[in-house]
Amino acid sequence: MTTADRLSLLLAEDDPALGPLIAELLEPDYRVRLAVNGQEALHLGLTQPWDVMVIDRGLPVMDGISVIAALRTKGIATPILVLTALGATNEKVRGLDAGANDYVAKPFDAGELAARLRALTRTFPSPAGPVSIGTWEFDPASRSVRSAYGDLVTLAAKEAELLEALAAEPARVFTRDELLAAHFQSTDQPGVIDTYVHHLRRKISRTVIRTVHGVGYQIGDAS
Amino acid sequence: MTTADRLSLLLAEDDPALGPLIAELLEPDYRVRLAVNGQEALHLGLTQPWDVMVIDRGLPVMDGISVIAALRTKGIATPILVLTALGATNEKVRGLDAGANDYVAKPFDAGELAARLRALTRTFPSPAGPVSIGTWEFDPASRSVRSAYGDLVTLAAKEAELLEALAAEPARVFTRDELLAAHFQSTDQPGVIDTYVHHLRRKISRTVIRTVHGVGYQIGDAS
DNA sequence: CACCTTCTTAAGCCTTTCTTAAGGGCGCCG
DNA sequence: CGGCGCCCTTAAGAAAGGCTTAAGAAGGTG
């Protein structure tokens, strides 16, 4: 999920008739990039970030299952839906176990495909309630942070966005570029992040956000 | 994922014959709890943590789709697979959009159900996955080591690289040249390794890394 | 329109990390 | 037990990265 725009979708389908058809079908909801063989799909999958992938099982050069296995081996965790002419259960099992997240047999129903893609890309609206960050409680709605002692601090919009992004995945370390791309204007330079981190640390606590030298920032861990 | 044990699975199925049958089918791989109506399923879903849920569409008291919607509203993000007698595409779409992650129509194939559940519960060996080293936990992503007592130590990039390399093959003894070639500039001299080993021993523990005299280093084994 | 908050940029200073080097200590082998 | 390597430890300069500050721009409000 890179922008507020449509989600990016990598479609790997070699059938010259079906490929563009599916692409057109999905275009209203996704930014579709069509790959016509397995190698191309693998390359695109590895070199660019995607929100979701739809991969045909039978692809030239390198078959779909191999592409998926290769992507997974490289640590790509993007949701993948396998599209296939083969409806046999055995094939489904193999595809899913190779690392696919869903499996749709051709001929498929456009509505079902769309629904399954929605299910794969759905991100649950973080429970609107307050999020606890260490000993603090952060309420995105009111953009305020309450300490264990009851002190209330209100944050500016950007400050809150940054904190929310970091808190969404406490275990993850975010690079400045990631945070920048997701929450600030693309013209901004990475240094902006430093400034806001400083603001948050001053307003809340030095330990809310942890620096990972040479990498980026992470929500401050307990202890 | 609560323990190293089987995953916990909440099964909501009212058919007195089918429920226990499915439960038995899944028992080898999951700790199954059977709920026989929607209300019970909702209550269990809200009050206990589950690794995955299998919910029948048509449940007494409260239908499956409503249960899912209610769970999602409360912020429960557990993967849910809908099981149903209704194979109509329309029904599938509605189920998925209510918050289900997958949809299997009865009669279903046991192998496919199992594969789809595996796909739902699969956690990718995220490159960020913490590695346990003796009594410590090393998280390459945040480059931090946590002791059994909870103390957190952050490592510099090179320190982390070295530790990660050693931890990748605990049984193996690495020579300085191997480590050097893989993780440092080729111009560096073997002595660099010694320095970083010293850093790690000081930061974590004298016993993290074991010296094999005349050969190189190895991850400090339990002993 | 004046005032205030928020956003963005930029520059200098400070801290951490990397790399090299040298002296002392220790283990292994004869 | 003595000698010879090998290993441990310390330290310090250089480089890279992060922190802090400050000030102008932009936007919103009374």
Radius of gyration of chain A, Cα only, in angstroms? Answer: 21 Å
The low-confidence runs of chain A, each spanning 5 or more residues with pLDDT under 50, are: none
N/C terminus separation of chain A: 31 Å
User: What spatial order of strands do you see in the largest sheet of chain A?
Assistant: 2-1-3-4-5
Helicity level of chain A = 25-40%
Topology of helices and strands:
Two copies of one chain form a homodimer.
Chain A: E1 7-12, H1 18-26, E2 30-35, H2 38-47, E3 52-56, H3 64-73, E4 80-84, H4 89-97, E5 102-105, H5 110-121, E6 131-133, E7 136-139, E8 144-146, E9 152-154, H6 157-168, E10 174-175, H7 176-183, H8 191-203, E11 209-212, E12 216-219
Parallel strand pairs in A: 1-2, 1-3, 3-4, 4-5
Antiparallel strand pairs in A: 6-7, 7-8, 8-9, 10-12, 11-12
Helix pairs in contact in A: 2-3, 6-8
The first copy, chain A, binds a DNA duplex (30 and 30 nucleotides) through residues 156-159, 184-185, 188-189, 191-192, 194-198, 201-202, 211, 213-214.
